[in-house]
């Protein structure tokens, strides 16, 4: 197990990852490399394994076979401190998962203060800076139910960023939003990309997946069936199943 982070190699690497739930194989032989400061989008039908892949990358699911590296450190090594690994990865899910009984600011400063030992003043200053950046400066003192869905999801992104993650995993973060609120959340992801944040995101927003991706992976039945640049996958897909999926959805 390498203790020194390898900052020159891929930020995230998955090799021959296999994940089963009971008898069903949900990921098989998944290989993935995510270079620093790049965006990888995962596309594919419901049930193809996108969420499971993200959950395995964050060690929320234990893999059955294969290995995963973060900054060159094998994080699936049983000796690794899983909590420490998760602290380096920010995650945002489909449903805004802010705590309803805490203000936006309290939601955002919770992990930095409790998990990372940052003092209150510093945690709040950083939270306010991020809230300003994501256009939520005026919402720090509000409770989540006073925010629109788009604002809640942006606040959830701020919360994920508050621990200064190396890598951000975004799972269908616009799927639960009214259509008119999708754009403001996608704008945040665009801004993060421009700032150089490394991201892996599962999305049904194909236009967005194409626009923002340095790498697109098409998942089908737990396999990354096809991968390439956005231009390759959307403009000239090689696999019949990819073609069929894109015809149906675009
Ligand atoms: P996607 O995000 O692409 O829709 P998922 O990763 O959620 O796909 O699911 C992939 C497959 O794994 C599906 O068949 C789903 O039913 C199954 N699955 C996901 N999580 C579990 C679980 N905790 N237990 C059993 N089966 C699961
Ligand atoms: Mg999913």
UniProtKB/TrEMBL annotation:
Keywords: ATP-binding, Nucleotide-binding, Transport
Pfam families reported for this sequence: ABC_tran
Annotated PROSITE patterns: ABC_TRANSPORTER_1, ABC_TRANSPORTER_2
InterPro entries per the UniProt record, alphabetical: AAA+_ATPase (IPR003593), ABC_ATPase_HisP-typ (IPR030679), ABC_transporter-like_ATP-bd (IPR003439), ABC_transporter-like_CS (IPR017871), MetN_ABC_transporter-like (IPR050086), P-loop_NTPase (IPR027417)
MF (Gene Ontology): ATP binding
ABC transporter domain: residues covered: 12-246
Annotated protein name in UniProt: Amino acid ABC transporter ATP-binding protein
Top-level taxon: Bacteria
Taxonomic placement: Bacteria, Bacillati, Actinomycetota, Actinomycetes, Kitasatosporales
Family membership noted in the UniProt record: Belongs to the ABC transporter superfamily.
